[in-house]
Specification:
The chain is 16% helix and 38% strand. It is α+β, with helices and mostly antiparallel strands. Helix 1 packs antiparallel against helix 2. The longest helix is centred in the last third of the chain and has 15 residues.
Length: 152
Protein backbone atom coordinates (compact mmCIF):
# COMPACT_ATOMS: atom_id res chain seq x y z
CA UNK A 1 0.00 0.00 0.00
CA UNK A 2 1.39 3.39 -1.01
CA UNK A 3 -0.38 5.65 1.53
CA UNK A 4 -0.80 8.31 -1.18
CA UNK A 5 -3.94 9.80 -2.64
CA UNK A 6 -4.73 8.41 -6.10
CA UNK A 7 -6.06 10.51 -8.96
CA UNK A 8 -6.70 8.77 -12.26
CA UNK A 9 -7.61 10.93 -15.21
CA UNK A 10 -9.19 9.40 -18.35
CA UNK A 11 -6.69 7.12 -20.06
CA UNK A 12 -4.27 7.03 -17.12
CA UNK A 13 -3.29 4.01 -15.12
CA UNK A 14 -3.12 0.33 -15.83
CA UNK A 15 -5.68 -1.60 -17.82
CA UNK A 16 -6.09 -5.01 -19.41
CA UNK A 17 -8.23 -6.16 -22.32
CA UNK A 18 -10.89 -8.75 -21.62
CA UNK A 19 -12.97 -10.08 -24.51
CA UNK A 20 -11.54 -7.23 -26.61
CA UNK A 21 -12.68 -4.48 -24.23
CA UNK A 22 -10.69 -2.47 -21.68
CA UNK A 23 -10.85 -2.96 -17.93
CA UNK A 24 -9.16 -0.03 -16.16
CA UNK A 25 -7.63 -0.59 -12.73
CA UNK A 26 -8.66 2.47 -10.73
CA UNK A 27 -7.30 1.39 -7.36
CA UNK A 28 -5.57 -1.89 -6.44
CA UNK A 29 -3.87 -3.69 -3.60
CA UNK A 30 -0.78 -1.57 -4.30
CA UNK A 31 -2.82 1.46 -3.25
CA UNK A 32 -5.13 0.29 -0.45
CA UNK A 33 -5.67 -2.38 2.19
CA UNK A 34 -9.43 -2.53 1.78
CA UNK A 35 -10.72 -2.64 -1.79
CA UNK A 36 -9.89 -2.62 -5.46
CA UNK A 37 -11.94 -0.78 -8.07
CA UNK A 38 -12.29 -1.33 -11.80
CA UNK A 39 -13.98 0.41 -14.72
CA UNK A 40 -15.16 -2.59 -16.75
CA UNK A 41 -16.39 -2.41 -20.35
CA UNK A 42 -18.45 -5.55 -20.95
CA UNK A 43 -18.89 -6.59 -24.59
CA UNK A 44 -22.22 -7.73 -26.01
CA UNK A 45 -22.98 -11.37 -25.23
CA UNK A 46 -20.34 -11.71 -22.49
CA UNK A 47 -21.26 -13.57 -19.28
CA UNK A 48 -19.09 -14.49 -16.30
CA UNK A 49 -20.99 -17.72 -15.74
CA UNK A 50 -22.58 -18.47 -12.40
CA UNK A 51 -19.93 -18.42 -9.67
CA UNK A 52 -19.50 -17.79 -5.96
CA UNK A 53 -16.77 -16.23 -3.80
CA UNK A 54 -15.88 -17.58 -0.39
CA UNK A 55 -14.27 -14.40 1.00
CA UNK A 56 -14.65 -11.54 -1.49
CA UNK A 57 -17.36 -8.91 -1.47
CA UNK A 58 -18.20 -7.29 -4.80
CA UNK A 59 -20.17 -4.26 -5.89
CA UNK A 60 -21.31 -3.24 -9.36
CA UNK A 61 -22.76 0.07 -10.56
CA UNK A 62 -24.01 0.32 -14.14
CA UNK A 63 -22.85 3.45 -15.94
CA UNK A 64 -23.98 2.61 -19.49
CA UNK A 65 -25.81 -0.18 -21.28
CA UNK A 66 -27.90 -3.03 -19.96
CA UNK A 67 -26.95 -6.17 -18.08
CA UNK A 68 -28.78 -9.27 -17.01
CA UNK A 69 -27.60 -10.43 -13.61
CA UNK A 70 -28.45 -13.61 -11.81
CA UNK A 71 -28.15 -13.21 -8.05
CA UNK A 72 -28.81 -16.52 -6.32
CA UNK A 73 -32.27 -17.42 -7.74
CA UNK A 74 -33.27 -13.87 -8.72
CA UNK A 75 -32.80 -12.27 -12.14
CA UNK A 76 -32.09 -8.53 -12.33
CA UNK A 77 -32.36 -6.41 -15.48
CA UNK A 78 -29.71 -3.76 -14.73
CA UNK A 79 -29.79 -0.39 -16.48
CA UNK A 80 -27.71 2.76 -15.78
CA UNK A 81 -27.91 3.64 -12.11
CA UNK A 82 -28.47 0.05 -10.94
CA UNK A 83 -26.26 -0.93 -7.99
CA UNK A 84 -25.52 -4.43 -6.74
CA UNK A 85 -23.72 -5.56 -3.57
CA UNK A 86 -22.68 -9.22 -3.35
CA UNK A 87 -21.51 -10.62 -0.02
CA UNK A 88 -19.44 -13.83 0.05
CA UNK A 89 -21.39 -17.03 -0.58
CA UNK A 90 -24.00 -15.60 -2.99
CA UNK A 91 -23.96 -17.34 -6.41
CA UNK A 92 -24.08 -14.78 -9.21
CA UNK A 93 -23.59 -14.20 -12.93
CA UNK A 94 -22.87 -10.86 -14.56
CA UNK A 95 -23.86 -10.71 -18.24
CA UNK A 96 -24.34 -8.21 -21.03
CA UNK A 97 -27.39 -9.52 -22.81
CA UNK A 98 -27.68 -6.56 -25.20
CA UNK A 99 -26.01 -5.86 -28.56
CA UNK A 100 -24.16 -2.79 -27.21
CA UNK A 101 -21.32 -2.49 -24.71
CA UNK A 102 -22.08 -2.02 -21.04
CA UNK A 103 -19.84 -0.09 -18.67
CA UNK A 104 -19.79 -0.74 -14.94
CA UNK A 105 -17.81 0.31 -11.91
CA UNK A 106 -16.82 -2.74 -9.92
CA UNK A 107 -15.21 -3.06 -6.50
CA UNK A 108 -13.73 -6.17 -4.93
CA UNK A 109 -12.83 -6.41 -1.25
CA UNK A 110 -10.29 -7.35 -0.08
CA UNK A 111 -8.04 -6.05 -2.88
CA UNK A 112 -5.91 -8.28 -5.05
CA UNK A 113 -8.44 -9.41 -7.66
CA UNK A 114 -6.52 -7.33 -10.19
CA UNK A 115 -4.02 -10.22 -10.34
CA UNK A 116 -6.86 -12.51 -11.48
CA UNK A 117 -7.76 -10.10 -14.30
CA UNK A 118 -4.10 -9.74 -15.33
CA UNK A 119 -3.65 -13.52 -15.53
CA UNK A 120 -6.97 -14.00 -17.32
CA UNK A 121 -6.00 -11.41 -19.95
CA UNK A 122 -2.60 -13.13 -20.42
CA UNK A 123 -4.17 -16.59 -20.79
CA UNK A 124 -6.69 -15.43 -23.38
CA UNK A 125 -4.08 -13.36 -25.27
CA UNK A 126 -1.74 -16.40 -25.43
CA UNK A 127 -4.28 -19.02 -26.43
CA UNK A 128 -6.89 -16.87 -28.16
CA UNK A 129 -9.69 -18.52 -26.15
CA UNK A 130 -10.93 -19.01 -22.62
CA UNK A 131 -10.33 -22.74 -22.03
CA UNK A 132 -12.83 -23.75 -19.32
CA UNK A 133 -10.37 -25.98 -17.43
CA UNK A 134 -7.62 -23.35 -17.36
CA UNK A 135 -10.08 -20.61 -16.38
CA UNK A 136 -11.57 -22.84 -13.67
CA UNK A 137 -8.11 -23.45 -12.19
CA UNK A 138 -7.34 -19.72 -12.32
CA UNK A 139 -10.62 -18.82 -10.66
CA UNK A 140 -10.12 -21.41 -7.92
CA UNK A 141 -6.81 -19.73 -7.01
CA UNK A 142 -8.62 -16.38 -6.74
CA UNK A 143 -11.50 -17.24 -4.38
CA UNK A 144 -13.96 -18.17 -7.12
CA UNK A 145 -15.88 -21.43 -7.41
CA UNK A 146 -17.20 -21.63 -11.00
CA UNK A 147 -20.71 -23.14 -11.18
CA UNK A 148 -21.45 -22.66 -14.92
CA UNK A 149 -19.27 -21.79 -17.92
CA UNK A 150 -17.86 -18.37 -18.78
CA UNK A 151 -19.30 -17.07 -22.06
CA UNK A 152 -17.76 -14.51 -24.34
Amino acid sequence: MSGKAIVRRPGEGKFVRLAGQPMAFLVTGNDTRHTSMFHWTIPPGFATGLHVHRIQEETFYVLEGECEWQVDHDHVHATPGTYLFLPPGVPHNIANASNKIARVLMTVSPPGHERYFEELAEIVARSGTADPTTIGELRARFDTDQLTALRG
